Amino acid sequence: MKGHLVHEEGLRFRAIADETAEIRFDAGDRETRRGPSPVQGALLSVMACTAADVVLILQKQRVRLTSLEIDAEADRASEDPKVFTKIRLHYRVRGTGLTDAAVKRAIDLSSEKYCTVGVMLRRGGVDFVNTYEILSP
Fold first, then answer.
1. Is the pTM of this model over 0.85?
2. What is the C-alpha to C-alpha distance for residues 40 and 55, in angstroms, rounded to an integer?
3. Are 85 and 121 in contact (CB under 8 A)?
4. DSSP conformational letter for 99
5. Most CB within 10 Å of its CB: which of 6, 12, 25, 116?
6. Domains in the chain, start-ordered, CATH in brackets?
7. Splitting the chain (137 residues) into consecutive groups of 10 residues, what average pLDDT does each group show?
């Protein structure tokens, strides 16, 4: 995997990995940001990583998923480096044939085995709390 980053101005950067679409990061003041901060990018990355896993796992279980949303809240250390200490992920899943067991299994497999970003953060000491709800189709 390769990446490239270009400084735009102030604390704004354009980044690209392996010839994909560019992402803009902005570590400046919240009021003037034009993209996520690098730390927000890490939170969004863990959300996208686990979402992809859950979708794939449910597809393999032949579950017809119609929507998946994830809300996240992260706690950070109060002193530098202000690393994540806890991440709460709440999954809202909608589909045909969804069972508690299937959804829980998909989330657990992602969390414990497949989500590379989450596993890296967990190995770094971040505590994860996963909750979910199954919405009617």
1. yes
2. 23
3. no
4. -
5. 25
6. 3-32 (no CATH), 38-135 (3.30.300.20)
7. 96 95 95 95 98 97 94 98 98 94 97 97 97 93
